[in-house]
Amino acid sequence: MGIGGSIFLIALGAIFAFAIDANLGWLDLNVVGWVLMLVGLVGLAMTLYFWNTRRRTVVAAPPVVEDRVVADRVVPVQDDRVVQEYREVRRPGRPTV
After folding, report:
1. Domain edges within the chain
2. How far is residue 10's CA from residue 17's CA, in Å, rounded to a whole number?
3. CB–CB of 75/82 below 8 Å?
4. How many whole angstroms separate alpha carbon 44 and alpha carbon 51?
């Protein structure tokens, strides 16, 4: 039913129960109002119960493990600047990032 529908039934029931003073011989509007309010309260309670008991699933990505093997570190000098170079060797079968 949802929260909106439940609140609508509660409001409509309150209008029938407290605000309307009509006399229909075969229908008591006060009783109809109380029944609508009761149905609205039950619907609201059920909606809130089902919203609070549903499972919240969090999907997390697996941690990324990088295997890097650095070999042959060379520190060459170019134009009086030290430049660090390295080669990276990856193991086969591992995805690159």
Report:
1. 27-58
2. 10
3. yes
4. 11
48 token code pair:
């809130």
Question: Residue 29's closest CA among 50, 9, 13, 44?
Answer: 13
Each residue's pLDDT expressed in tens, for the chain with a length of 97 residues: 788 999 999 999 999 999 988 878 888 889 999 999 999 999 999 999 888 877 666 677 777 766 666 665 555 566 666 666 556 666 666 666 5
Please give the structure tokens belonging to residue 8.
């609508």
For residue 31, what are its two tokens? 């009783």
Q: Count the residues in the chain.
A: 97
